[in-house]
Design goal:
Elements (H helix, E strand, L loop, with lengths): L4 H5 L10 E2 L10 H13 L26 H13 L6 E4 L2 H11 L9 E4 L5 H8 L4 E4 L14 H4 L4 E7 L11 H11 L3 E5 L11 H4 L3 E5 L9 E5 L19 H4 L2 H9 L11 H28 L4 E3 L5 H4 L8 E6 L4 H10 L2 E2 L1 E2 L4 H5 L9 E4 L6 H12 L3
Parallel strand pairs: 1-11, 3-4, 3-5, 5-6, 6-7
Antiparallel strand pairs: 2-8, 7-8, 9-10, 10-13, 12-13
């Protein structure tokens, strides 16, 4: 079945304002289904459902309980389908940074005075700062400065018996390169029994999560990056891990009004493409729908790389250059680029003047080391299921007017 992008666009009322949104990494557009679910959840969270007229063995046992008390349970079930796990393996929180901080407190029984953790420059800086606050000695993996990739082989030398936690991203949120999580986990396991924590936030809008395939112990995802409410989740490989944690630290409160819209966000992605075979479970529909959606977006991504790459003054970070030319790096539909001799602020203003919403690439040590600051900064482009070939052509024409 061909991807019906025009049908998908009809699910976003915000697209009627005339802007071309290519900033999914920063402010994803909210589907109308999710916006309606948030409104409905806030309106009904404090209401009490009417009692059932007849009592019996199958009647509700929670008569008098506000409807919102069930919303977090439904949110955990939706996240579980997103990751292919059970709801009991999911912990909710207000944001991924808050969950990282809570996880470190919960792990205190596991952290001895000589414990270490392994960090990297590809992770989001705000998450790395949270992990560094633990006081645990940090060892550092290094990224390939030509591509921004995070090589797995180095973890065989970094992780050891003292390592308790290894943090990696599933994908870089702006460069778009997908990290070989499964290879990193395999390298870590050779020398250590450390838990591997994966930030799947940038990865989740494009592909279903699969902890089993990664071999990871914990994954984090921000539902807001799916165009959903500001709710985040930690997904654990096994409920047995909870026995080793101080679970009170992970008992974070989330707004029932927000939690009530999480199922709508997941259902939105499960419904983008119809025609899933086999069981009609939400997980199966998600895998089918996101698979078709990713295939469509990968085509747009390839066209964008090709057309921008033909402009001699354009430098795509991690892609352009002799060192990166022959590298085979898997990428989600996101990239950062700069125009030689043109400050990124000027590029961004030209895009906005032509109706294109993008963002200036966030400064960080990795991008500085990759030369982004030297070329005057970069602009990040991130695609959504509603983007079209016309959007790509409009972007390329606008950049060509500068290059």
């Amino acid at each position: 079945m061909a991807f019906d992008v025009w049908g998908v666009r009809g699910l976003y009322t915000s697209l009627g304002g005339g802007w071309t949104y290519l900033n999914a990494h920063d402010h994803p557009q909210v589907p109308e289904k999710v916006a309606a679910a948030v409104s409905r959840s806030f309106r009904n969270a404090a209401t009490v459902p009417p009692p059932e007229p007849v009592l019996g063995s199958h009647s509700r046992a929670d008569v008098g309980t506000p409807e919102g008390a069930e919303y977090p349970k439904a949110a955990r079930a939706a996240v579980a389908d997103l990751a292919g796990v059970t709801p009991e393996q999911v912990v909710l929180g207000p944001s991924v940074p808050a969950l990282y901080s809570a996880l470190l407190i919960a792990m205190r029984p596991l952290l001895r005075h000589n414990s270490t953790m392994v960090l990297n420059p590809v992770d989001r800086p705000d998450l790395t700062r949270r992990l560094q606050r633990s006081g645990v000695e940090a060892k550092w993996a290094q990224a390939d400065l030509a591509t921004g990739d995070l090589p797995a082989w180095q973890y065989r030398d970094i992780a050891d018996g003292s390592t308790r936690l290894v943090s990696v991203p599933a994908a870089h949120p702006e460069l778009g390169n997908v990290v070989g999580v499964a290879d990193i986990v395999e390298a870590v396991r050779e020398k250590s029994r450390a838990w591997v924590l994966v930030d799947a936030t940038a990865y989740a809008p494009y592909r279903p999560l699969d902890l089993e395939a990664w071999g990871a112990d914990i994954a984090a995802v921000d539902i807001a990056q799916l165009g959903g409410p500001e709710v985040a989740a930690l997904i654990f490989r096994d409920e047995a891990m909870f026995k080793r944690l101080d679970m009170e630290a992970l008992d974070l409160q989330v707004s029932p009004g927000l939690a009530g819209a999480v199922p709508a966000a997941v259902e939105h992605y499960a419904s983008l493409v119809k025609g899933a075979t086999g069981r009609s479970s939400r997980r199966n529909r998600l895998k089918h729908s996101m698979g078709e959606t990713t295939a469509y977006l990968n085509g747009l991504r390839d066209d964008l790389h090709t057309f921008l790459g033909t402009l001699p003054a354009v430098h795509i970070v991690g892609v352009t250059g002799e060192a990166a030319e022959d590298a085979r790096v898997e990428r989600i539909p996101r990239l950062a680029f700069g125009v030689n001799g043109v400050p990124s602020e000027t590029v961004l203003q030209r895009l906005l003047a032509n109706g294109i919403v993008a963002t200036k690439t966030h400064e960080c040590s990795l991008l500085d080391d990759m030369g982004v600051a030297e070329m005057g900064g970069a602009v990040t482009i991130a695609m959504s299921p509603f983007n079209t070939q016309n959007d790509i052509e409009q972007l390329v024409r606008t950049v060509a007017s500068l290059a």
